[in-house]
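Example record for the data management plan.
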Amino acid sequence: MGMLILGLVIFLGVHSTRIFADGWRTSMISRLGEKRWKGLYALLSIVGFVLLVWGYGQARKLPGMWWEAPRGLRDFTGLLMLISFVLLVAAYVPRNGLKARMHHPMVLAVKVWAFAHLLSNGTPADVLLFGAFLVWAILSFRAARQRDRAAQTVYAPGTTAGTVTTVVVGVVAWAVFAFWAHGLLIGVRPFG
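Corresponding structural encoding:
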């Protein structure tokens, strides 16, 4: 469990600078330069991610179950994951209505992903991993919305084409991941 905790501390710590130390982040970018800051940020993110994936894989083997989700709750998790995938795609498709309305769809996608997985997974490793990401996503979304208000950020309005593209790509990505890639990469088949 130690590697999972270390990975979470590094990965979420790096991704929390805008939440807890935005002024420090700005001064570090000024001091190091944007390219060096991004390089350091990327390196620490990769190290943290590798440690948390490896640590989670090890921690999943430990005995212990805090709860077992009923079948209906697992199906509901699949629906929440569909929403999460659409929100994730919304972060990248230009001029879609979801981003225009919600402003930070990637963080919302992480929030939905973490919550959905907490519903269906009751081991201590699951609660630690998904609970940590849920808390981070809640704090990150709040901080991002506060920055938007302070900067009076205006988001481009969405278009029908952008929104339809977002939904279609999100649904296809969800289907590929849910019915094939999740089992291949994670070792768990959500629908099978």
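Summary line stored alongside the record: The CA atoms of residues 179 and 192 lie 8 Å apart.
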